[in-house]
Every structure is written in structure tokens, then in C-alpha cells.
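Researcher: Next entry in the queue.
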Amino acid sequence: MKTWLVVSFLFVSVSSFGQDMKAIGHELAKSFNDIDTLNIVSRGLHPEIDFHDSVTSANEEFALKLKQYTSKVPQTLAYSFPELSQTEVKIVTSPDGKLRIYSWDDMNEGSMRFFINVFQYKGDKVHSQLSDTGNIDGEIINTGVYYSNIFQLNFGSRTVYIAQWHGNGSSIDYSAGIQLFEVSDSILNDKVKMIKTKSGFSSGLHFEYDLTKVPENIGTLVRCEDNGKTIKIPVVNAAEAVTGKWITYKFDGQYYVPVFEKKKSKGKGEK
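Model: Structure for this entry, 271 residues:
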């Protein structure tokens, strides 16, 4: 019943707002700030009270509003959302402007963080779909990572999107990687198996690491270069320490294939 009331409200709201992007952005920012307020109250003012259900409910309301607006109002795909961008919602857009991902921490307690994402994309029209760690609106795509960048690879008539993601299992146990996506009419395909690995072809790469064992000044841990034709991830040793070495995948016209550095030949007198 609650979900139906929210959807009914959104239908009226979308019709009323029409092309007013600023009003939509304000409504979304206000909705997200309700989550933030509950988080502040639960952690600071009243830590003895369990606000889990209230925070979950506020996340559900915001997620459904965001999905509804981004699917019913096509102009939102190009709108910068200046007010929402001032919150903790991370908004990343592909270079061609046809794929956008909205990510946010659900702010429930615990050292393991969970993130919710809304994917907005343009195929035959503008679509929007939700992924989360629970069961909001019955749509589940992944298990709680946030996206920080979207690169793209153009070849032939195809465009493949390379989305960089991150996750934290605890205060020091982190993970990162990339996921390939491709838009086909009304579908956002996340099974784009173009990366050649030891176990076969994959649609993504990932690694886990200890946040306290990352070299200083190493910069971005996941790198995409040469107009999407080169992907680099760090070598992580058995102790989950990030080394100064990299695993490089290069696009050969059909697949991303690993490129191994050639061992230097030994000079005279070297053993």
C-alpha cells in the first residue's frame, strides 16, 4: 500500500512539474536530505534508538522518486542537478551523455557500507532502472557498490560503457573494479563479455585490497586510457597490499586482452 501511494504521488508530481528541472531537483534533494537527517539523529542525538526501519523507508521513498522522475522526464538525463549534487548523491555521466548512474550510501549503521544505484540511459527512449541491496520495487542488479566514473569505447557501430566502481566491506577492506555496459533499445546489458581472463571471457574486472596498504601518491587505482582502449588495475599481493605493478588490458578490435610486460634480457655478467 505504501509503495502504491508513493507511486501515485509521483505520477501527479511528474505531470505537475512538466519541464521544470529546478523544481524536480529541489524535490529530490529534499527527499535525500530526509535520509541524511535521520542518519544524523540516529548517530548523534539519539544513538540508543533504532532508526533502521525509518532510514530504510526514507531510502525507498527517495529511490522511487528518483527512478520515476528520471524515467518519465527525459530532460533529466542532461540536467546537472546542482542542488542534488551538493548532497552525498554521486552522479556520473558517460562522455556521450547517454548513460548516467546515481549512487548513494544507504546510511544504515555498520562498518560495511551498502550503496543504492539508479541507472538512467537512452535507447529507444530514456529509461531508468534501480539496483540495490534489498528489494525496492522488485529490481535487483548488484549488491551495493557505488560508481565514480564512466568511460566509453566506440568501435564500429557499437558503444560500450566502462563504469568504474568501488565498495567497502569494512573500515579497511575495500574493493574496486570496472563493469562493462551496453545499451540496446530498452535494455541496459551488463553481460558484455569482452574481457579475456584466465577463467574465460568476463564483463568486468575487480580486486580487493587493504586500505592501509595502498602506496602514497599512487593515484587512481582503476585506470581507463586511450579512448577506452586500455584498462589498468593494480597487482594486489596475498596480503591484500596494492603493489606498484599493473595488469593491463588492451582492446584488440574485438576483446580486451591482457598485455604482459616482457622480461628484460640479462646483460653480460648478470646472473
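Model: Residues 1-9, 133-142 have pLDDT under 50 and may be disordered.
Researcher: Noted, moving on.
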